TrEMBL record:
Residue ranges constituting the 4Fe-4S domain according to the UniProt record: 1-59
Cytoplasm among keywords: no
Xref: InterPro entries: 4Fe-4S_dom, Ac-CoA_synth_d_su_TIM-brl, ACDS_complex_subunit, AcylCoA_decarb/synth_gsu, Dihydropteroate_synth-like_sf
Domain of life: Bacteria
Name this protein carries in UniProt: Acetyl-CoA decarbonylase/synthase complex subunit gamma
Pfam families: CdhD, FeS
Chain sites annotated for binding [4Fe-4S] cluster: C17, C20, C25, C42
Chain residues that bind 5-methoxybenzimidazolylcob(I)amide: T340, G370, M371, S372, V373, A433
A biological process from GO: acetyl-CoA catabolic process
Species of the source: Candidatus Ghiorseimicrobium undicola
GO function term, MF aspect, one: methyltransferase activity
Keywords on record: 4Fe-4S, Cobalt, Iron, Iron-sulfur, Metal-binding
């Protein structure tokens, strides 16, 4: 946990020597607390105090990197329990499990399918991050062969899952440059796997049944040379697993217990198609750094990725699109003009419905600082003056020859004022975006 300015001041020599460039040690301490200066600027500080300050400056939850290049996944380094306090920085990784007992053709097809599990939602690309290869039996050669094949077929990060330490070490060595996760060290094999993780510079999952056992195992793994860890507790009901995940997150943040200062991982055990989705969402909501499941159909993965996107969006900075007039389809001077806000979800919802109508149109995204229609209207960010300004700024008078503007049905109350200020005929559109296709078709018929 980071020290306050007064905590830092207590560790300083209190000589007010000014060698640091500040008039007093207290002033220097306050700047240190804000991370505006380095502790190196104090020439009088003791080695013990310096070590304490450097340790306090470390993130409470270590940042762990998996994979490489554009597919690199970073987890951990979070600072809060609740995102409204600040925000969550590193979205949880979602991975699909493949068993090495499957046929080569089945493995190939599954990997290719997983590679395509990418979706565009409100202007962002959301996708699966990992493929986990699980050793089903004890055939070391088969496990190695499948790991190599999967590495050839995908650029996603890889998790190696086996109960056999020798198989894990051999497979990890083949793809070490891809920075895979080794899963998992326990009280029986931790020395062997910790040594391998240290030698190959790879992240290592440390697994124990309970938090108490995990708290004893983590220091032992650290002493054996592995420091890039991911934590996992044993199989248990969802409510108990959520308790474990919450405590793993809470202890370094609220109790300054750095033993648990690592991200966590969960593996979905359910065979039920829908339970897998529900469990994965539960664990993402309650702090897991990585969730692995066998389900890989688009209808299973999309809701998981959607929830993750929502949770890891800064609540103080809504997703926004650039305010401007967007042409949809082959527009011309007779194309209708619709108004919405620059809140991404509003814009892309309206965009989809206009595209579905097959009627080319201009869609004006008014700058409402990322607020939705009703929120922006209530906050006076979506007003007749703002809309009129946008109509002129984005060149609508030059783009179309008609004088019609369609506004959202929820703000029909502003139609008279907007008509007076803009000189345009204001048409009140549907309240719900789903009504846009039929609405536009009726406009087109009416001429």
């Amino acid at each position: 946990m980071a020290f306050s300015g007064l905590d830092i001041y207590k560790l300083l020599p209190k000589t007010n020597c000014r060698k640091c460039g500040f008039p007093t040690c207290l002033a220097f301490a306050m700047q240190l607390a804000k991370k505006a200066v380095s502790v190196e600027k104090c020439p009088e500080i003791t080695a013990a105090a310096k070590a304490a300050l450097e340790a306090s400056a470390q993130p409470p939850i270590k940042l762990i990197t998996v994979g490489e290049g554009e597919q690199k996944l970073e987890i951990g380094n979070e600072n809060v329990l609740f995102r409204h306090e600040e925000k969550f920085f590193h979205p949880a990784g979602v991975g699909i499990i493949i068993n090495d007992a499957a046929s080569d053709e089945e493995i190939k097809n599954r990997v290719e399918h997983v590679n395509k599990l990418s979706f565009e939602r409100i202007g962002q690309q959301i996708s699966v991050n990992l493929i986990a290869v699980r050793q089903a039996g004890s055939d070391k050669a088969r496990f190695e062969a499948v790991v190599k094949k999967v590495a050839e077929l995908t650029k996603l990060g890889i998790v190696l899952i086996s109960a056999d330490a020798a198989s894990l070490k051999a497979a990890a060595a083949h793809i070490a440059k891809r920075k895979p996760i080794i899963h998992a060290a326990n009280k029986e094999n931790y020395q062997e796997l910790a040594a391998a993780a240290k030698e190959l510079s790879l992240p290592l999952v440390v697994k124990a049944d309970t938090l108490e056992e995990l708290s004893e195992l983590i220091p032992a793994v650290n002493s054996a040379g592995a420091n890039d860890l991911i934590l996992q507790t044993g199989d248990k009901p969802v409510n108990k697993k959520i308790w474990d995940l919450t405590q793993i997150r809470r202890m370094p943040l609220k109790k300054n217990n750095r033993v648990f200062g690592y991200p966590s991982l969960t593996v979905i055990k359910s065979n039920d198609t829908y339970e897998q989705v529900i469990e994965a969402c539960d664990y993402i909501l309650k702090y897991t750094g990585i969730v692995l499941l066998e389900g890989f159909e688009a209808y299973q993965i999309l809701p998981i990725l959607t929830l993750r996107q929502n949770i890891y969006t800064d609540p103080q900075k809504p997703l926004q699109v650039e305010p401007k007039a967007y042409p949809i389809g082959q527009v011309n001077e007779n194309s209708p003009v619709l108004i919405t806000t620059n809140f991404s979800l509003s814009y892309y919802t309206v965009l989809g419905e206009v595209e579905a109508s097959k009627i080319p149109a201009f869609l004006i995204s008014v700058d409402t600082e990322g607020m939705s229609v009703l929120t922006a209207w209530a906050a006076e960010k979506f007003t007749p003056d703002k809309i009129n300004e946008s109509i002129k700024k984005f060149g609508i008078p030059e783009k179309v020859k008609h004088k019609n503007i369609v506004i959202p049905g929820y703000v029909a109350v502003m139609s008279g004022d907007l008509e007076e200020k803009s000189g345009y005929r204001i048409i009140v559109g549907p309240r719900e975006a789903a009504g846009i296709p039929s609405f536009l078709k009726n406009i087109q018929k009416a001429g």
